[in-house]
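Please fill in the sequence for the structure shown.

STRUCTURE ENCODING:
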């Protein structure tokens, strides 16, 4: 387990405190702790992970484009975080249930999301953007850190039922300063709940650098609650998969919660409403471009002679097709009538709901009169 009591001085020293399997230059690095969890991963599996990351980056780019063109109200980019999301997401079992924040597009993809699922909520359409029961993933959570409490509650239900499942919750570095996250860890540790906490440390909580809110690695907080933690290179997809398998095995075996800190970087804005040029330097961005998660895996596969041109062409075609389908799904969406907001709110109608419906109808009528 990585040391967690060393202050974060800069990016270089920060990364030295992470566990990895594939170095930034693509070299395979022996890792006695993580290697046992990816013994089954062959080159075909690595190519599949590469495909997932390329498709995810294309989905993300299309989401930004649709927002800039006025088709979406907002988009939360995940460019740069592909390895952290795909690596951990692909380690999950179908029976596990995920409680995401608003940036887990890659986790949605790994759970089988359809093209329209990525944009429905950001377009302001009905529902949770997808069927949570079908994907095994709760609605995207906008309130920072609230999903960690939901995950622990769900995990307590798993425990009560004696089910072979794990609840998994994702959040960013900024959320670790929220009371909800810390309260969730208190409950999880106290009841030994089968839950995995995944912190994607992308270095910026909107415009606040992680070093300002935490002088030490975030993974060091979990042991204080009695939760074992692992700090992993979030741009190494294989290390992220291995770390998640470790955490899932720990939680599934009745040992209680586990905590992962995936050290990565948000290459784009916090959301499309943000201008990161106001608080980040070009030098910092360039430093992280050299650690690009997709380029890293490509370098590893290329050095082994396992990255044929046919694979690259097929992956790019698949990514472009996903973007086309996503755009078509977005543009073809038909917004429900405003009054439909009252549909399926309660199982049975009641006077309070009817009164609110009438009041809202009267409000809408004022616009027609105008």
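FILLED IN BY: designer on duty
SEQUENCE:
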């Amino acid at each position: 387990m990585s040391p967690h009591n060393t202050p974060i001085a800069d990016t270089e020293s920060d990364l030295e405190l992470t566990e990895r399997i594939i170095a930034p230059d693509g070299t395979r690095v022996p890792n006695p702790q993580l290697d046992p969890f990816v013994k089954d991963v062959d080159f075909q599996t690595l190519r599949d992970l590469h495909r997932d990351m390329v498709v995810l980056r294309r989905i993300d780019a299309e989401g930004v484009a649709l927002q800039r063109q006025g088709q979406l109200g907002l988009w939360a980019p995940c460019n740069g975080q592909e390895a952290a999301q795909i690596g951990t997401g692909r380690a999950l079992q179908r029976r596990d249930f995920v409680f995401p924040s608003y940036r887990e597009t890659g986790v949605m993809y790994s759970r089988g999301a359809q093209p329209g699922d990525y944009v429905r909520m950001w377009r302001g359409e009905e529902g949770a953007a997808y069927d949570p029961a079908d994907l095994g993933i709760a609605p995207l959570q906008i309130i920072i850190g609230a999903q960690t409490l939901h995950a622990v509650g769900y995990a307590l239900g798993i425990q009560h039922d004696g089910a072979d499942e794990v609840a998994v919750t994702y959040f960013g570095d900024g959320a670790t300063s929220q009371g909800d996250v810390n309260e969730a860890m208190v409950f999880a540790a106290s009841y030994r709940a089968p839950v995995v906490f995944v912190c994607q440390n992308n270095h910026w909580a909107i415009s606040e650098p992680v070093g300002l809110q935490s002088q030490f690695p975030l993974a060091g907080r979990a042991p204080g609650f009695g939760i074992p933690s692992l700090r992993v290179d979030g741009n190494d997809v294989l290390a992220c998969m291995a770390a998640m398998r470790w955490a899932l095995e720990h939680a599934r075996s009745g040992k209680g919660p586990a905590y992962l800190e995936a050290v990565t970087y948000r290459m784009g804005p916090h959301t499309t409403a943000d201008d990161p040029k106001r608080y980040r330097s070009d030098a910092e961005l360039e430093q992280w471009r050299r650690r690009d998660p997709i380029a890293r895996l490509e370098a590893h596969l290329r050095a082994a002679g396992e990255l044929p041109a046919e694979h690259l062409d097929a992956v790019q075609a698949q990514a472009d097709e996903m973007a086309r389908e996503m755009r078509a799904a977005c543009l073809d969406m038909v917004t429900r009538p405003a009054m439909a907001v009252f549909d399926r709110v309660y199982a049975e109608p009641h006077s309070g709901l009817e009164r609110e419906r009438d009041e809202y109808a009267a409000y809408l009528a004022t616009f027609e009169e105008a």
